[in-house]
Every structure is written in structure tokens, then in C-alpha cells.
Amino acid sequence: MAATMISVPKNMVLRYTMDVFKNYGLSDEDAKYAADCLVQTTMWGIDSHGIIRLLIYSQRLGNGALKASPNIRVIKEFGAVALMDGDGCLGYIGAREATKKAVSLARQFGIASVQMKNSNHFGAAGLYAREAAEEGMIALIMSNTPINMAAPGSKGPVLGNHPIAFAAPMFDGNKPMVFDTCMSEVAGGKLLVAKEKGEKIPFGWAVDKDGNPTDDPAAGLAGAFLPLAGHKGYCFALMEEVLTGVLAQGAFLNTIGHLFKEPTKTSYVCHHMLLINPLAVAEKADWMRDMQELRCQIKGTSMRDANAQLIFPGEIEEGVAAKREKEGIPMTETLFASLNEVGKPFGLAMSL
Ligand SMILES: NC(=O)c1ccc[n+]([C@@H]2O[C@H](COP(=O)([O-])OP(=O)(O)OC[C@H]3O[C@@H](n4cnc5c(N)ncnc54)[C@H](O)[C@@H]3O)[C@@H](O)[C@H]2O)c1
């Protein structure tokens, strides 16, 4: 049976999420930042990594798997390269600090590579890619994840479906180009959303615990996600593993704690923020002209359907955000009720 959908005002969800984080001991600034991240991700339509994640983060903050007041710090620095320790932080806060550090190094050196170990799930990689692009940087943001994805021919999961986001500034007042994805056919959170709505998933997204194709999201979550484009997704994920866990001398493959299957264990995931300042080589006006030309040629592509237009990466999210700004956030009644359960111990509630 299809789930009943309701519409919830953005500001109500934002305030509530911030209050929940504060009650778990986050500072006002961190609670606001983390709440902004969750709600903004939902506003973009990335429901798999938006407000639904408050459920697992609050559980983890409550049991100490996430530290509310971590000692996030730079532990090594050499020129434009820095290594940071996230000290078991909520991933959003660690990623914010790593991005800030990378922007400052890229301003100084034209390029920056900031790695962070001992962090946790940071949600949508595009959050930090956009932040860096708003500071005028080209960004490549990566993170490793717990093992959850099969490789061609493997019996079960072998490595993580690591997210990656690329962003490039336009400098013309338009939103940056943003491609924010991961190495499996779809993010695991899309299976979570389907499960929550009582929907089936397409075959090709995941296999069950015995390696059989499945259209049941719960069976897929218990099994393994399938890599995008077969060996390519598998090898790209391995590349990310090297550029995150191995390079940061942090956790990788089976030393990463699973977000859902091991809710009391700190995940210790690693991030990598790789930034380039385009103005180190290009004049601002030239960069702007060329990015506009790139976008123009892509948007001007002739399509089989004369009414269609190619999508420039990032456009979908901006469109959904504008719609949700007007109409509120669509969510199932069950998710609304589950979110309200989180605030109950603190006397917090959202009511429509
Ligand atoms: N933190 C983690 O551990 C983790 C793990 C996996 C995924 N994620 C996040 O999950 C989210 C969803 O990942 P996904 O792999 O399902 O992404 P996806 O396959 O839905 O791809 C989304 C991206 O593709 C672009 N896009 C979509 N359709 C397009 C089209 N027709 N033409 C051009 N561009 C198009 C969008 O603008 C967006 O940038 C991402 O935000 C990712 O960072 C996070």
C-alpha cells in the first residue's frame, strides 16, 4: 500500500532538527550547520541523504558513536596538503572544517588537498563541493563508506559505494555546476526511502544476501548494492578508497564501522577535499565566458524530443529546491512520526 504523504514547512523541520542536535550536546553553531545540511539536502530532493538521516544520527549521538564536541584538528601539513583528525565527529562538522581548511590552502597555493580521518558519514558530498564552489573553487569531494557494494562476480559486498562530488563555479551569478553521485547504481539511501514508502526497487540496484537479484529494498539493504557500470564503478570505488582511507592513514574496507548494522560503533570514515582555484591560471572573465559557452553548447544540444533539453548537472536539485521552498517538504506520515519520536525525550515535537 502506498504511503500517505504530507507536506511539512521547511522552517519547522529546520528548527526542530537544530533543537534535536542541540539537545544531543552540539554547540549552537554546529547544530545549526548540521540541521542546515540535512534540510538543504532534502530541499534539493536528495531524500536519501536528507532529514531521514536524523533518525540514525540521533541514535548514534545518544550512544556515543558520534562525539558532540570533538577535537577536530590538523595533524600534518605540508604546503598545500593537510591531514586532519575528525576525532569521531558527526561527518557534517568534520567535512565543514576540512572544506574550510582546503579553501584557505587553495587561496594560498592555487590547489589544496585536505584529507580527514576518524570522521563519520557526511551525507551528500555535494554540500561541500557547492560550499567550495561558492568560494570560487573547483572541487572534488570524496569519502569512503563501510563495505556495502558488490564487485563483478563477488558473492557479497566487497567495498564501499563511496560518494564523490564535483563542482565548478560559474562566476556569473548562476549556481555552480555540481555532479554529486556515488559508485553504486544508486545510493543505498534510495533503498531506505523505498523501504520506508513500501515501494519495490528496480532489479539492477542490489542483490540479496545470497547474491541473487532482488526488487525488495530490505533484501538489498541486507545484501549488497551493485556497482555502476560493472567493473568501472568497482574500480572507481577502489580509486576513492586509495584517495581517502589509505592516503589519510585511516580506516578503509573492513575497518570502517557500518552506519546501520553497527549503530554503536564509530565509523571512522575518511574524507578528501581536493580543490583547485581556477583563477590561479585563468582570468575571471575568460573562465566565466568558457563556462557559459560549455553550458550553452550542452543546453543547445538537439534532442530527439524537440521539447526536451539536456540537463546541466546540478539543475535538477535547484529546480526541486525552488518547488519545495514554495510547497513545503513532502514526507510520509510514518517518517514525520519517526522524526517526532527522536525529539520526544527532550519534549520537542513538530505539529502541523
Ligand atoms: N556519505 C555517503 O556515505 C554517501 C554514500 C553514497 C551516496 N551519497 C550521496 O547520495 C546522493 C545520491 O547519490 P546517487 O549515486 O544516487 O546520485 P544520482 O545517481 O542520483 O546522481 C545525482 C547527480 O546526477 C545529476 N543528474 C541526475 N540526472 C541527470 C541527468 N539526466 N543529466 C545530468 N545530470 C544529472 C544530478 O544533478 C546530481 O548531481 C549524493 O548526494 C551522494 O553524495 C553519500
Question: Can you walk me through this structure?
Answer:
This protein is α+β, with helices and mostly antiparallel strands and 352 residues long. It has two domains: 1-63 and 315-352, Orthogonal Bundle (Hypothetical Oxidoreductase Yiak, Chain: A, domain 1), CATH 1.10.1530.10; 74-184 and 227-299, Ribosomal Protein S8, Chain: A, domain 1. The chain is 40% helix and 16% strand. It contains eleven helices and eleven strands. It has helices spanning 10-23, 28-43, 54-63, 91-109, 126-134, 188-197, 217-222, 231-246, 284-299, 315-327, 333-343, and strands at 5-8, 73-78, 81-85, 111-119, 138-143, 163-168, 177-182, 206-207, 224-225, 269-276, 329-332. The protein has a seven-stranded mixed sheet, with helices on both faces. A two-stranded antiparallel ribbon has the order 1-11. Strands 8-9 form a two-stranded antiparallel sheet. Strand 3, helix 4 and strand 4 form a beta-alpha-beta unit. Helix 1 (10-23) runs antiparallel to helix 2 (28-43) and helix 4 (91-109) runs parallel beside helix 5. The longest helix is centred in the N-terminal third of the chain and has 19 residues, at 91-109. The protein is globular. The two termini are 24 Å apart. Nicotinamide-adenine-dinucleotide binds next to strand 6, strand 7, helix 6 and helix 10.
